[in-house]
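Posting for a labmate who doesn't have an account.
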Amino acid sequence: MNKKRDKSNVGAAVIGLGRGRAHIEALIRAEGAELLAVCDKNKETAERFAAKYEVDAYTDLGEMLKRDDIDLVHVCTPSGLHTEMLLQIAEAGKHAITEKPLDITLERIDRAIEAFATRQLQLGCIFQIRLMPAVLEMKQAIDAGRLGKPMLANAQVKWFRTQEYYDQNGGWRGTWAWDGGGSLMNQAVHTIDLLQWMMGPVQSVVGHTQVSAHRIETEDLGVALVKFRNGALATIVGTTAAYPGFGTSLEIFGTDGGIAMKDNLITEWKIRGDDMAAEEADMRRKFGDDKAAPPADTTYVQIQDMIDAVRNNRAPLITGREGRDAVEIVLAIYESARAGKEIELPLKS
């Protein structure tokens, strides 16, 4: 067994070695942590990763959790399995960070949050796009009131995914049981999270969904009109059928100006004032040129923060509770699409 070398370090393990690869690479670079084990239902995959990173391989989460040197578990399995695993992790007295979405129903999410809270364990949810430099600059301007009264927002994720993408790895993507939805729940959830993070709590949604270009249970195209409690309105578009892919955009407008991003880079920054043009040029120079400001490895940044949170017994930057909000919005859109009517939030768990 590969034991922890430094007792002051956080002993980490990763379950789910698809998206989990990015977590492993971040852990290898991180300070104050040691990767001790990997877990995957596919024995060959687990053993291959274990050999590559010189750690222990498991196919059973329960067996891995018996180790007293593992402090933090990274959950990177299909979304519909998250809470089942999180409850085991909490019961074993370990901290956890899970890939988005936290799970696919509010009832499961609330059970996971409660399980960690009652044991005073830390639970984080990966929403690493929040930590992109341009996103943080945009958020700071909005929170400072520089755009005036919030008025309008547009969030669009116009991606393309092949049928092979949905068929591979057991075909869990685009299923209600494991993915919890389609293009809204899996792909657009990051941008929906940014939308509500910047604009505030949602009052109601009207949504429409359909399957346009794939053989899947769930949607590959979803659109919604969103009303916020502050009176602002927004549109959401999330699709994996926009060949060949047109990226991600987020626009926020207030009574004193607006800011627009494309693929997490600033494209427009127009805020009322005598130096509006000069400020926009400066913002685009700092946060709008991918050569001048290459995208940060924000998965690494968030994982390093989670390690620090465990070591210092504090909440992580993005908690499990914060991972709930975007899922609630997506579920409300699905309910609206099924019922053919406006749906008020909060939803019943």
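Reply:
Got it, the structure tokens are right above this. The first strand starts at residue 10 and ends at 15.
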